[in-house]
Amino acid sequence: MDGFRARRVRSEHVDFADLTDPHERAFGFYLIKVPAWDYGQLIRASHATAARLARSRTQYGDAELHFLEVIDTPALD
């Protein structure tokens, strides 16, 4: 089969844990952790963006999303 490449499938379940409080999901600082790799990333974003980034880190192992602090954004009106 010319051009055929086999893909490697994950053999174990990888989990994403959103450890934020639903009442505190705002624009702010979030910490994404992958404990198995001793990896942590601090980002400034909305909850939706932070959750999307944390889910993408599951390629390295179980990922956790933590909310740290809200950032007040100025009104644009």
What does this structure look like?
The chain has 77 residues and is of the alpha+beta class. The N and C termini lie far apart (61 Å). It has one helix at 47-56; strands spanning 16-18, 28-34, 39-45, 63-70. The chain has a four-stranded mixed β-sheet with strand order 1-4-2-3, covered by helices on one side. It has one helix and four strands. The chain is elongated. The longest helix is centred in the C-terminal third of the chain and has 10 residues, at 47-56. It has one domain.
Distance between the termini: 61 Å
Q: Number of domains in the coordinates?
A: 1
Biggest β-sheet description? 4 strands, mixed
Query: Can you count the helices?
Result: 1
Strand order of the largest sheet: 1-4-2-3
What is the multimeric organization of the chains shown?
Answer: single chain
What would you call the structural class?
alpha+beta
Amount of beta strand: 25-35%
**Taking Cα atoms only, what radius of gyration do you get, to the nearest Å?**
17 Å
Q: Outline, from the CA principal axes?
A: elongated
- Are there runs of 5+ residues with pLDDT below 50, and where? none
Instruction: Report the count of strand segments.
Output: 4
Mean pLDDT: 84
Approximate helicity band: 10-25%
Q: Could you give the order of the helices and strands?
A: EEEHE
Question: How would you summarize the topology of this molecule?
Answer:
Layout: E1 16-18, E2 28-34, E3 39-45, H1 47-56, E4 63-70
Parallel strand pairs: 1-4
Antiparallel strand pairs: 2-3, 2-4
